[in-house]
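Reviewers of the previous submission asked for a worked example of the structure-prediction workflow described in the proposal, so we include one complete record here. The input consisted solely of the amino acid sequence. No template or homolog information was supplied to the procedure at any stage.
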Amino acid sequence: MTTFICRDCATLADGSPAGPPDRCPACGGRRIFSHAELRSLAIAHIDCDAFYASVEKRDNPEIAGRPVIVGGGRRGVVSACCYIARINGVRSAMPMFQALKLCPKAVVLRPDMDKYQRVGGQIRALMQDLTPLVEPLSIDEAFLDLTGTESLHRGTPAQTLVRLVKRIEDAIGVTASIGLSYNKFLAKVASDLDKPRGFAAIGQADAPDFLKHKPVGLIWGVGKSLRGRLEQEGVTTVGDLLRFDERDLTARYGAMGGRLYHFSRGRDDRKVTPGGEAKSVSAETTFEDDMGNLEDLTAVLWRLAEKVSARLKRKGLTGGTVVLKLKTNRFRQLTRSKRLERPTQLADTIYRASLPLLEKEADGRMFRLLGVGVQTIQPLGVDVPSTGDLLAGQAGGAERIAKVEEAMDKVRGKFGDAAIKKGRSLGPGGR
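From that input alone, the workflow returned the following structure tokens.
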């Protein structure tokens, strides 16, 4: 006998020996999901569906029924796309020119990361209303541990999750899919089984049969290189790993070998860890035309530094390492970094630290992409005052710059980002 849940009203009940009903006995809804372990599973992975594109469709109902691609210009790549575009073969990270060949009628929109961050924060807040054990993986997905919350929410974790995704859809206007299991690995796998607006579960009883015929790349951390090595050993499915003992796999693949052993058997003892603070904050742009002039690149660098600074300030974070990213017109990627004396969130500091890195690389080569970011992230106030940065020793320079940026931020907050522009952002000739 299995337990079923109505994904419309969260009614939970035991089905008959013949199986779950076609319609919910409470609301008449047809979105019925059943699983033998539905009452006991408590680890969830929630992933919003085509998040960037969904937010854009929410904000512009005129494009709701059209294929939407979020990404750079003709030289860029696809950051995200809606399911209509996916039906036409479009995928994330695909070159934009290729995506438009596959889906020429698509609506193409530039990413608005600030907006996506705001919406992602709203969704995160709804998750944290249910449990403090929320582990973000990205802007639009997270693990949740709902163990022991039945009394608090007057329902099983499955019921709580159904109510959550309905609340996300009703209050925020985007949809999400749920994977439910007894550990993180399988919850993440389950969330991809029934997209969009999906609900799937993998229990302890069905995990072995579910896993054994799946490709070995299903296991988290198995990329193209490792998959090639495993195939040379005759391992193409998760079930193929069952013939190896843990010692043998560890000897061959190090710490990853232990993960292969346990994950292939449906085991994952990792806990859902609250927080999941960002490891980096960055901004980048792909140019419509290749760019090599230092003055032009410098103007773009400042604008990107401002974007990174704004995101750090909004989240109350600082970064201790500045990272410059460049991609040449021959698609060679360059990454350069500089460790700061003190963590910062100031645009001026990020710009000043990254500028020498850019000057060194701008030797006449043409570039198609420029990005800047910060790493070594920590909350503001941890071992550094709000004004602490590289200029701290310059007769109050850091404090002065911080006050100037604070004033500029207030004006932009009231009148928009274009209300104030620094001269260095305009490029040659005041562009």
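The first helix runs from residue 51 to 59. We consider this example representative of the routine output the project will generate in years two and three.
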